[in-house]
Amino acid sequence: MRSSPQLDPRDRDATLIAALRTGDDMAARDLYDQYHPRCVFFLRRWSGDDALARELAAEAMSRLLVKAASGGVREPRGFAEFAFTLTRNIWKQYAERITRERRHLTVVDPDQLTRHADDRDPDRAYTAAMAIERRRDVDTAMSELPPRYREILELRFGEGLSHNAIAGRLDVDPANARQLLSRARERFRIVFRKLAER
Description:
Rna Polymerase Sigma Factor, Chain: A, mainly alpha, single chain, Arc Repressor Mutant, subunit A, 198 residues
C-alpha cells in the first residue's frame, strides 16, 4: 500500500505500519525512505563520522522495521518520536560501549544537540538542526570569501543596504557596487555549493 500525499504524516505512518504488518514490502520501503535519512542525519551530528552514522542508522532502521512489523510500536501515529528515541538510544549505547572500551571518541550528548527543539517533536528537531547546520555552512562559506566580497554581502544582506547606500559606504559608484555584489554572490554560491556537496 502506497502512502497518500495528502495524508497527515502521522496518519501516513500509521497507514504504512498497518500495511507493513500485513507483509507489504512497499510499506517497509516507504518507511525506510522516510526515516533512514533522518537517522543518518542525527547520528552523523552526534558521532561526527559519516561511515559510523550510516552503520548505526542501518541498525536503527532494522530495529524500527522489525518493531513496526511485529506490533512493537504501541502508537503508530507516534512513529516519528519512536524512531527518534530508538536512534538516540542506539547512539547512547554505542557511545557507552566505546567509552567502556576506552577508545578515543569525542562523545557528544544527543540531549545537548537537540536542546534547541522539543524531543517530542522530531520533525521540529530535524528542521531546527538542519537550520543550524545550514547557518554553519553559510558562516564557513563567508569566511572563505575575499574580505571585499564578505564586506559587500554583509552590507547588502546583513544590513539590508541598497546599491546606492553600499556605493556610498565603499566610496565607489553604484554601477561598480552592483558589479561587486554580483561577483560576490556568484563566488558565495560556488563556495556554498561545494560545502553542501561534502
